[in-house]
Amino acid sequence: MSERARDDLRRRLEYEFADPLLLELALTHASGGTLDNQRLEFLGDAVLGLVVSDMLEAAWPEADEGLLSRRRAALVNAESLARKAETLDLADALRLGRGEEKTGGRRKDSILAGVFEAVLGAMYRDGGLDPVRRLLARCFAEEMQLPIDVEVGEYKTRLQELTQRLHRQAPAYELVEIDGPAHARHFTAEVRLGDATLGRGGGPTRKTAEREAAREALVRLGGVASTEAKP
Asked: Could you give the angle at which helices 206-220 and 155-167 cross, rounded to 10 degrees?
């Protein structure tokens, strides 16, 4: 990674490593070098679970353990973490072997989720929990605004319920972009209500992109203590 790319990544992470080699290691997939990020990924997974659990418990003190566990599972699954890695442009910084490069490794959810966790592990090893907390608070800021009982798979359903109740109109989804090679497509979708764009999202499938667009729309519409029926 060039010095400029490294500086850009540090700015996105909002963290300056005391040991820059930790970041280099975190970005090295098992296919890309004799030393790789697997141990940092293992550490980052544990740190991620702790910090997200703490964030959820603080955000929803009245929620029961079942609700908190389901929301945590939705936030830390591979698909969710891969989207966070894309937001930070970690894919561009990844060091992959030729085989993974040829088969679209930079678009694989498992690899992107792994590098996200490895970066968290590197930040924790370098600077403790505080920088990890700050990064995760930014990464999951939108999700923390959604009602605790909104399951990931319900974003489109809840958005439709909301727009029908408020505007007597259903939202419409449009696929606005497809990029990447045939084996590693990336889809971008928008959700609209009439002429207004409510949200935009992306992912490895059209379904994921539409769901992310619906999630963004729910947040923009007020988190929507949202779709709860009014008396």
From this structure: 50
